[in-house]
Amino acid sequence: MATDTMVRKTSGRQSKGLTFNPTRPAWKEPVSPLYQAIKAVVLGLITLSIVLPILLVVSTSLADDQQLVAAGGYVLWPTHPTLQAYQAIFSGQFMFRALGVSAVVTAVGTVLALFVTITMAYATSRPVLFGRPVLLMVLFTLLFAPGLIPMFLMVKQLGLLDTLWSLILPGIFGAFNFVVMRSFFMNIPQELIEAARIDGASDVKILWKIVLPLSKAVVAVVGLFYAVGFWNAFFNAMLYINDQTKFPVQLVLRNYVVQGGGLADQLGIASTPPPQSMQMAIVVVALLPILLVYPFLQKHFNKGVITGAIKG
Amino acid sequence: MSSTTSEVPPAPAPERATASTGPGRFRGGKKKASAVAGQSFAGQSFRVRWKRDRQMLLMMVPGVLFLLLFFYIPILGNVIAFQDYQPFLGIGDSDWVGFQNFVDLYFNPDFWVALRNTLVLALWQLLLFFPVPLGLALVVDSLMSSRIRRWFQSIVYLPHFLSWVLVIALFQQVLGGAGLVNNELRHLGLDALPFMTNPDTFPLLATVQLVWKDAGWAMIIFLASLASIDGSLYEAAAADGAGRWRRMWHITLPGLRSIIILLLILRIGDILSVGFEQFLLQHDAVGPGASEVLDTFTYFAGVVGGGWSIGAAAGLAKGIVGAVLIFAANKVAHRLGEPGIFSKKAG
Fold it and tell me: Do the domain assignments include residue B69?
């Protein structure tokens, strides 16, 4: 900010066209302080609206009883941070199992999804037999959805109800991720691939040895997209899973926090800390993995991996 | 592999592959022509190509299998919309009833409530949600400090990656009956306000939730388009004496025209899907009168209520109308001279 204002002052004094200024294009006039201030306030408010609720939840989950009672339920900063709410929700088997279910579904789902998406995207990115009809087959899925009830009947027909596969298999391919991946593959210089072909490399080998090493960024992004999707999914669990021992974290969050169901007895414990902090602890358990992978995800946003595909 | 052996550098007349070999050629969608000169698939027999592409075909198998199992066969499953489907009989033995389910739907007042809510919410989203990312992108684009810019972008993209369950939970903790704001109101001796449960203000609440979650992320597309506008245009306009607002009107907005139209088409094609999880999660708190949308109607009528066929009928009607809308909107875009989302040539 400081350098920004300094530059603005100097360029204001001199004639605009001649000033060399690495941060501001030559044709842009200096901005009035009032406009600048309004902009800062707007951006600040937007930032607060996102940071504040998250801070509130994390802080309250860590606050101790006395502070919670004194503050009337919510705190923005825990004076004596304690993990008792977490100990409480993890004291029964229930939350542990939910965490395990979510972890397994996310890990297995992401690996399978990457496999299906990479193979499909690579095969249709090259001029091969049936490449075009298969591509159209994928793109059609962007226009139309089979609908909730036929999907439910299909999953039931396959005997997947009440198994973790019902949370994994329907999500292992996404047309959007496919498009991102494919357009990245198409931008790999074809000469490389043709040269390898002439040298006698098989298609599998080309994919594994040439294309994938060049595509680490897009594989990382798409993989993280899938992982976030699997972790966040709650409705498919509500639809396909009846057995409480197979509930993922998001469904627990929905049942016990959003719907406000009896928390303590389901988790198999007496309610020692105020339920407020336990609810918050569950929210944090669902939130934390996203916050942890987010820096890796957003590292790639500005590299144009995603936007390039959207435009292309 | 056999095809690559015939190396005839300046290929004779019908060879089109020789002309352009860059990757740009591939993006156009016509994929017959390979990059290597002299390689043409036109004259090859099916067997030769089959042999050559064996491994590629094998690679398509998992994806195609997925599409069949979880897309194309379920689409066929929509026939139960024309049946009196009974789970214990299955699709094969259930009675056919023609369009009876659609007639029932027509006379079902709940369906009309759901349709009305869907359209109302879609309109709110179009008016309130759609312009926000564009405005945000213009503001972010005008930020000079790249550090502030990066920080701000990181923060506003974040909510997109939170699940709807989390978003609703966060909103409840702040605005809910026992939430932060109402707590403070009570402390001040005021009445608590039912932000989260008032059916009358629900469309506004739902739109605010959507803006909070996705407006930042939706901005990313506009930012990319803004970055692709040629800077010399601004320079020339400034030299001609155009001020900031004139430049925005005459250069920035026309530069964004294509992407705005594209997103509008997508939105209109999707107008009957205003979001499912968001409304399902708040169904109990707000009541079906305000929060029932077509998707939740399908769920409650079909899966919860056991009216499989009527639920499927509602889902099918919605899907068909959505597909028709997206085609129509695309057509309008072509009329306006815009590429739209798909044309006959593009893949």
Answer: no
Q: How many CA atoms lie within 13 A of A102 on its CB side?
A: 25
Inter-axis angle of helices B164-175 and A275-299, to 10 degrees?
130
Of A49, A83, A117, the last residue of a domain is A83
Q: Domain range for residue B6?
A: 1-45
Q: A221: domain range?
A: 87-311
Q: Does B62 touch chain A (CB under 8 A)?
A: yes
The count of structural domains within chain B is 2
What's the domain count of chain A? 2
Interface contact B187-A173, CB threshold 8 A: no
For chain B, give the percent of residues with pLDDT over 70. 85
Residues B150 and B293 in one domain: yes
Q: Which residue of A has its CA nearest to B296?
A: A148
B176–chain A Cβ distance below 8 A for any pair: no
**Inter-chain residue contact B55 with A202, CB threshold 8 Å:** yes
Q: Judge whether B158 lies within some domain.
A: yes
Do residues B218 and B302 share a domain? yes
Could B57 and A250 be called an inter-chain contact, meaning their C-beta atoms sit closer than 8 Å?
A: no
ipTM over 0.95: no
The percentage of residues in chain A with a pLDDT greater than 90, rounded to a whole number, is 41
A235 → closest Cβ in B153, B243, B277: B277
**Over the stretch A240-299, which tens digit does the pLDDT of each residue have?**
999 888 999 999 888 887 777 665 565 655 555 567 788 889 999 999 999 999 888 877
Type of residue at A71: A
Highest mean pLDDT among A160-174, A190-204, B123-137: A160-174
Contact of B188 with chain A, judged by CB distance below 8 Å, is answered with no
The backbone torsions φ and ψ at residue B84, rounded to the nearest 5 degrees and listed phi first, read: -100, 80
Query: Does B318 lie in the same domain as B191?
Result: yes
Tell if the CB–CB gap between A150 and B27 is shorter than 8 Å. no
Question: Do the Cβ atoms of B173 and A280 come within 8 Å?
Answer: yes
| Residue of A23, A29, A120 with shortest CB distance to B244 | A29
Please tell me which residue of chain B has the smallest CA distance to A146.
Answer: B75
Task: Give the predicted TM-score (pTM) of the model.
Answer: 0.83
Q: Nearest to residue A294, comparing CAs of B214, B222, B155?
A: B155
CATH for B287:
1.10.3720.10
The mean-pLDDT minimum among A165-179, B36-50, B226-240, B328-342 falls in B36-50
User: Residue B96: what are its φ and ψ, rounded to 5°?
Assistant: -85, 135
The answer to whether position B328 is within a domain reads: yes
By C-alpha distance, the chain A residue nearest B342 is A139
pLDDT given at position A271: 54
Half-sphere exposure of B190 (CA within 13 A, CB side): 9
**pLDDT for res B27:** 42
Q: Which of A30-34, A109-113, B44-48, B131-135 has the highest mean pLDDT?
A: A109-113
Residues B242, B245, B247, B252, Cα dihedral to 10°: 180
Point out the residue among B35, B152, B311 whose CB comes nearest to the CB of A149. B311
Tens digit of each residue's pLDDT (9 = 90 or more) over A197-242: 888 888 899 999 999 999 888 898 899 999 999 999 999 999 999 9
Within-domain flag for B141: yes
Same domain, B165 and B277: yes
- Do both B213 and B294 map to the same domain? yes
Q: Are B27 and B151 in the same domain?
A: no
Cβ(B78)–Cβ(B315) below 8 Å = yes
**Token code pair at residue A284:** 């944090």
Q: Tokens representing A145?
A: 């959805």
A83, A102, A121 - which closes a domain: A83
> Does the CA dihedral A103-A109-A115-A119 come out positive or negative?
negative
